[in-house]
Every structure is written in C-alpha cells, then in structure tokens.
C-alpha cells in the first residue's frame, strides 16, 4: 500500500469515527447501536462491532474489500456489514450512515412510507419508503433496504431504524438528521386529535426538487 493510500485511509477513518460519535452525541443511536461506513478506493472502512465510539483510535481501523473480506484491523466489522456492502457495490454511495433514531424508528412501525410532510422530502429523492422487517445483519434485510432505496438516498427499516447514503460522510449524516427531523414533525402533527396533517403533492415536491438543485454556494 502506498503512502498516499495509507494517508487517505487514515483521514477517512478519522472522519468515520467523528461521524459515528456524532450519531451518539446527537441522540441518533444508543450505546453501540448503528454503524457507519465510507469507501476509499476498493476498500470499505466500517465501524467495528460492539465497540463504543469514544474508545476508537487510529489503531482500530477496520477495512474490508467489496466482497466483505477483512483486509485491515483486528476488530470484527459491524454485524450490519451486508447492508453496507450492498450499497457500496450496487449504488454510487460513497458513505453510509445507519441509526436507530427514535422518531424515525417509531414511524417505521406505523406506515409503509413517511408521508411528504415537508419539502425536504424532495432532497431525499421523494417520499421515504419503509423496508419490510428482516433480522438485523442478514442478506434479507440488505435486499429489502436496497429495494426501498431505489431512486432514494434514505429509507426507514421497519421496527429497526434508518439508512442514508451520500457522496460524503457529511452528506450521509445530514440526510440522516433531516429524515429524523421530518419523522418527528409528522409524528407531532399527526398526534393532534381531530386533525390531519397537510401533505405535499407530487407537483409540489417536483417544484421543491428543482429549487433545491440550485441551493447553496456554487461549487460547494
């Protein structure tokens, strides 16, 4: 492995650990639940199984190839490795964040997709689907998730949590946080007795998507 590749892995691991710690500090996971991955060339760096994020150091780097063979580290990869690998193999995802966020998990038990309560639905590709329940860590769960993510950048896992992906760890995390916020808004609005939340129509979401395409600073 070249020095440049080693440096890239070291930087990516630092960012991965920072993202994982953020999911815990901002209440999106409890304990060692949830997991994070990022692709560096033909390797996928992943959080290890059952290790508190605040204990992770550069010496704990865990990496697998796209077939799941471990090539770096002594710690076992996350039990949700199949979920991460299928996204890195089958989509253009470069980073994946999986959480057990409270409001999103609650919504996953109530509806087959999150109703379009806010225009940021468009930023995730459209109404967020719920992948049918399957045992964690299984190929069945990974397959259900992949189907729910068709043309989407985030989904809910029934009775389980969330998955979001992006070009960067920052983008994947931001989509995760946005999804949790939208779930909280919908739950709050739908809990008012005798009232039904106003939802956005497909044309309204398409209009929002066009507007969001030009959001932010040029080149950012």
Alpha-carbon distance between the two ends: 31 Å
Q: What is the H/E string? A: HEEEEHEHEHEEHH
Output the number of helix runs: 6
Biggest sheet, open or closed, and with what strands and sense? Answer: 8 strands, mixed
Q: Determine the fraction of residues in helical runs and give it as a percent range.
A: 25-40%
| Shape category | globular
- Percent of residues in β-strands: 15-25%
Give the structural class: alpha+beta
Give me the count of strands.
8
What is the CA-based Rg, rounded? 18 Å
Sequence stretches where pLDDT stays below 50 over 5 or more residues: none
Average residue-wise pLDDT: 95
- Strand ordering within the main sheet: 4-3-2-1-5-8-7-6
Can you give a write-up of this model?
By secondary structure, the protein is of the alpha+beta class. The protein has six helices and eight strands, in the order H-E-E-E-E-H-E-H-E-H-E-E-H-H. The chain has an eight-stranded mixed beta sheet with strand order 4-3-2-1-5-8-7-6, with helices on both faces. The mean pLDDT is 95.
Write the layout of secondary structure elements.
Elements lengths: L2 H23 L9 E6 L2 E4 L16 E3 L4 E3 L8 H10 L4 E5 L2 H7 L21 E2 L7 H10 L5 E4 L3 E6 L2 H22 L11 H11 L8
Parallel strand pairs: 6-7
Antiparallel strand pairs: 1-2, 1-5, 2-3, 3-4, 5-8, 7-8
Helix pairs in contact: 2-4, 3-5
Summarize the structure.
With 220 residues, the chain is α+β, with helices and mostly antiparallel strands. It is 38% helix and 15% strand. It is globular.
